Structures
1.
Amino acid sequence: MIYFDNASTTSVRPEVARVYKKLVEESFANADSMHSPGRKTKRQLEQARAHIARSLGVDDSEIVFTSCASESNSLAIVGYALANRQRGNHILTSNVEHSSTRHAMDFLESIGFDVERLPINERGIVSAQAVKDHLRKDTLLVSLMHVNNEIGSINPIEAIADVVHTHPTCVFHSDCVQSFGKIDIPFQKLDMATISAHKIHGVKGSALLMKKNRIQLQPLVFGGQQEQGLRGGTENAPANIALAKTIRLALEEQEKTYDHVKTIRDTLKTWVESFPGGHVLSPEDALPYILNVSFDQITSEVLLNALDEKGICVSAKSTCDSRSSQASEVILALNHSKKDASHAIRLSFSKDNTLEEAKQFMQAMKEIVENYGLSL
Ligand code: PLP
């Protein structure tokens, strides 16, 4: 199998799987129980939190464990808006966010918030100037992703954070799911940031929201005292403890993996550009982990299935939108044609991919276009 769908999810590192299995078997006690095994789980959980906080350069109390990035985004956006309504009614976001952010924003709009969705420019980003131009006195929150999950474009979040902080009452949340472990993230400048374990070779069911201590949130999952009362429910201690190792390994290997993935992306990009009917849809300066391309001869759906038959896994759009038959909104927002949007496929890479796989993909594409493709 060739797995080019790493923006959707990644394989679990064997080292992490081993630690996780041991924790599931041995540290099953409830971290809030007062007996010895419970206290041991709590100790391990707090050590993991401290390691993660140190890696991000924030305080231990600024790490909130959640079950997935969708939950972190929901808590950051809805939780912040509900707890701080008196500060303003206006919220800025973009028109290409992940569905968890989009739907959180739709919900806030339905209860009376004024949500403004900024368009992306030709580089697939929202510039700091665009944010500056749209900030208002009553802007409560700005939420913009760091790296786009369909095209790999990189928002200038450090500059955006600076602009947002010229407004004393406004805060900035960034969905860093597709950037964490791939490029540096300016956590010191962010008020809230979302990270998910399963995008960086960790286990599913574990994610976090980095939230600075001054930020007040309304909990969305009601329950006990867990996670400072921000998220009720028995802690998924094994997964969250394993997240510390996942994060350490991702950061240790960040530079090496970036160069490795870039070689694979560059090879495929050059090939697509020279292939008759092939188009690169990701912007020129996109993160090399994500390459969005289209082929005039073949629609996304047919191509996805044909590649699947050859043992090659790719996506057409974001996996969370994959059951909708509509063309990719993100590709359309980037001003590509409707045809490109309905022919787009996303190749996304990880440390596990090889140049040999890239070559096999090219060969498979030639065969598929010969067999299934419409003649140009
Ligand atoms: N944000 C981005 C940018 C993503 O790519 C994804 C997953 O595809 C998510 C959020 C949601 O992640 P999770 O599956 O952990 O909820």
2.
Amino acid sequence: MKKIAVLTSGGDAPGMNACVRAVVRYAIYNGLNVYGIERGYTGLINNNIKEMNKRSVSDIIQRGGTILKTARCPQFKEDEYMQMAVDNMEAYGIEGLVVIGGDGSYRGALDLYKKFGVQTIGIPGTIDNDLAYTDYTLGFDTSVNTVVSAINNLRDTMTSHERVCIIEVMGRKCGDIALYAGICGGAEIILVPEVEFDLKTVVKKICLNQRVGKNSDIIVLAEGVCKAEELKQQLKDNGVKGSIKTTTLGYIQRGGAPSMSDRVLAARCAVRAVDLLMANMGGRVVGIKDNQIIDVDIEEALQKHSKFDKTLYDTAMILGL
Ligand code: ADP
């Protein structure tokens, strides 16, 4: 293989840039030509393809977002558009493609591989940490640190006013951001889609905390459970007294300089991805398990179910007493 390309797709995540940089430089180090595709699969269809060199990726390791831009491209599910993408790649002589994105992006990579024989490798780029085959995804660690910092700030003011605070965090159907940020921020209550929640128990816990003199209660709520305002109303309707504030952190969780963990993960995943392409071993995705870089078949990876750490969740609930 002489020419490869890299794209970022779906929701952006801190660490995508560090990963693009690593793919480009490691590929060049190995004598390959590397192309950057803009706006994910949209750029592949629209021929937004440019050759990258070592300097194209200067000064980006510390930046969130993605210099390649990202997009959602519904047409990519149709063979007609996928054929256009394949034709564009062929015109450049591109034989291998690194896709940095989440499960949707992986489905696109799988189709390209199975239907058109393009050698594709996926790297998990999403703050949600919702890919079960890998312990961590790029951007998750940074995002959790952003949420922890917000909890710290909110704790100061909530304690001063003796309030209850509901902090709604991202993660789609995955509760990992809420779980990890919750345990790190000393949250009293963490609500995630993976654990059924009983409103009465939550109300009882808050009322007890208020009786025994806790100065504040932080509830970290994963967006996959419900909206913060809905929960607030439910708490009020079920007897929680005093002031309840809500904060929805929103897109702040998607930006910012990637953490050490995300930058290292980006470099390690990129190296494995390029190595796999050079060995013509497409149709795989890279990840990390027990601190070892792994690669698995894309289809197998997509079939894996939630890896939610219930033990860690139970620990967080005990420590938040
Ligand atoms: P993420 O990769 O973060 O999960 P999305 O689910 O939005 O984000 O998917 C990103 C892109 O991947 C979509 O806009 C589309 O171009 C492509 N994609 C998603 N699902 C499929 C599919 N079943 N077949 C082909 N391409 C897909």
